[in-house]
């Protein structure tokens, strides 16, 4: 009689490494990504895929229900798998599973003939009758097959076999709909009876009702894109691992962020303390983002009146603000068909289409054939794990995908959450960066969904626009305000501070549960070892920081990333990070022809921790190449700067890179924000 054992699939690593476009995912998944347009492709074309992967194996029993293999249907590989049994290799015994001409092997045959290390997933489906399962025998076979680079999935009563293998000793597992004896209760770190699917590292456990099995396949597919955390759902993390320094980054609760509810009177008062000659960039920034918020609320005429007033006193304002502002407002004007006379040319439809594509690519939005699978995984991440970060897509990208798929009710639900968060945070840039930068969202907001949340009435919009216009018209460029004096006096103070004074100032930005942001200092020897390993000499200001704190924690209140320890530094390719669309323009304004001549981002040295915001260094050789191109185009040394390391800040909600003057300058900017946060 055949008993439940195992299932796994993958391909020999040597063959995998030869296939262009494949994703290794740190050795946990070796399926080929078949779409070259999107690194987030979920397409699993069976004919091409089977020819690449070779045998795909799934362990079964004569007592295995066909429904137990529902994940294979979702992955579209039921008849392309090789089925492994404990004893019997009879095809007739497994005919009820609808596996066609799939290969069937005994465990003994498989272990003697297969290269176990070349497989990545061990799938153990449950059986209809626990009496047919010998947990210790199955557990022994699982233990012989499993290796550190594998994932293992056990469903239904097969979770007992996984426990018998000893693999759950330090893991949390789902015991939903599972009867456990004391013997097996003690063989896991913990059993969670309330959660139907649990992932703890590479081990997945779940009940085996059909809905859960389908959900399991969706989540597993998502995990190969790093979109599912190492512990899932987050409620399991909170319950069993809470308080660890390795806690996943989450958005702070909106209730912890004071909302300023900026009105026109508030903005007018702020503008009254600024000088056009000294604060032109800040003035343009404040007015633009208030105007675009009015437009998203449905008040495009009031928006346009503010921008027209701004361009009268500062004709070059949009040039200074750049593409992160111009593209969103052009999308808004397109949606309302209300573009005013402004001091730059109207983009063509082709330009708008290109901008839309670029932003979708930055966030790895999928091709049409993959969209619904990804949307299903997003719904599960939200419902099961309260995960609203939705990396790499973001909540904004999820709304766009829902609109593309015709899921209008879902899109409305999610955009209400998006607008509510933006309203609570009320950051100056959030309306453009999270909403208007997405072309479909700019169009969606025309229906008035933003105003439903913010509550601004037409009368209030008129009042606010007039208040800001009066402030714009009263701006004068001659005086230096007290605010300017304060800023000028503060800059030298930060610039003169020693590193061991500057860095501890950031402690006010820490998570409440952390005692400090800082880490123990790096040794000079550790820095030298890293430089030798990387084949470089690191920037001096960065090394001085490491000698004070070898890395730093995430700073949630200002959305600033943490920094890695020196031992974690490594070269990464821009393609791996999804940054290969960017050119090394060093922050210079360029026309399309100039931009194409600049070098692409190649290898980069990421110094920040994994989060939405990233800081990295571009190596001196690439910077030197970019400087050469820019100088050939007539840029002066003052504009391009000198050869050397260049630091870059980027967030996945931005369309352009922010080139930092130096790492030290970035840290001084954080210190200034920390001082304001006290």
In words, what does this structure look like?
- This protein has 678 residues and is α/β, with parallel strands linked by helices.
- The protein is 45% helix and 9% strand.
- Strand 13 and strand 14 form a beta hairpin.
- The chain starts with 7 loop residues before the first strand and ends with a helix.
Features:
31 helices, 678 residues, nine-stranded mixed sheet, 16 strands, SMI1/KNR4-like, 45% helix, 9% strand
Helices, strands, pairings?
Elements: E1 8-10, H1 13-18, H2 46-53, E2 56-59, H3 70-75, E3 82-85, E4 104-106, H4 107-113, E5 119-124, H5 135-145, E6 151-155, H6 158-164, E7 172-174, H7 182-185, E8 190-192, E9 197-200, E10 203-206, H8 210-223, E11 231-232, H9 234-241, H10 264-271, H11 280-296, H12 300-313, H13 317-321, H14 323-336, H15 349-362, H16 368-385, H17 394-405, H18 408-425, H19 430-436, H20 439-444, H21 449-454, H22 458-474, H23 482-496, H24 499-502, H25 524-534, H26 540-546, E12 571-573, H27 574-577, H28 592-597, E13 603-606, E14 613-618, H29 620-632, H30 637-640, E15 646-651, E16 658-660, H31 663-677
Parallel strand pairs: 2-3, 3-4, 5-6, 6-10, 7-8
Antiparallel strand pairs: 1-2, 1-5, 9-10, 9-11, 12-13, 13-14, 14-15, 15-16
Helix pairs in contact: 5-6, 8-16, 10-22, 11-12, 11-14, 11-19, 12-22, 14-19, 16-17, 17-18, 18-19, 23-31
